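anyone seen this seq b4? input:
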Amino acid sequence: MLHDESKCWQKGEKKVNFYNDNLKEAKKEQVEKEKLLTVVKTEECPWENSKQGKIKHLVHKKMGTQMKSIEAYMQILSPGGKSGKHKHMAEEVIYILEGKGYDLHWDTEVELKDKYYWKISENPKKFEWEEGDVIYIPVNTVHQHFNANPDKIARFISAINPIYKFLGYNDLEQVEDAPEYKE
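predicted toks r here
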């Protein structure tokens, strides 16, 4: 045999129940899932004054919903206001509910040394949007949302897949706080 694997594959006495434990855990998770929310009433959706701005959570793992593959919130931009500026590994999709404005997106490059570092481009790309538009934000793009109307709010729904968090790559980074954010 190529690596003499045939002489060593039977070595070791350690015994485990990983597979059987996984079966038990899967059954327990299925029972627990039945207790989770399928419908979330609007009054059950919590508000948050976050570094990203004023948001109303629609789907989040901490809300006790069955949804695990999407996190979504509605964000409100005050008249003439803007969101915080941030980046995350996962791509994001935004649906504009009302208002008119624009996004700034900064591309990033990774630099690998003893760990990875993000280099943010100096010049952002500008994308204008209005009610009914869908905005796509690519992986690792620094981005910020601006309400172009000085008299009315802008409102949108943001959705993101939290898979990178589950994989241990939760690199959400707040570059700039929303102007109205207060600790």
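The chain has one domain: 40-176. The first helix runs from residue 18 to 33. kinda curious what u guys think
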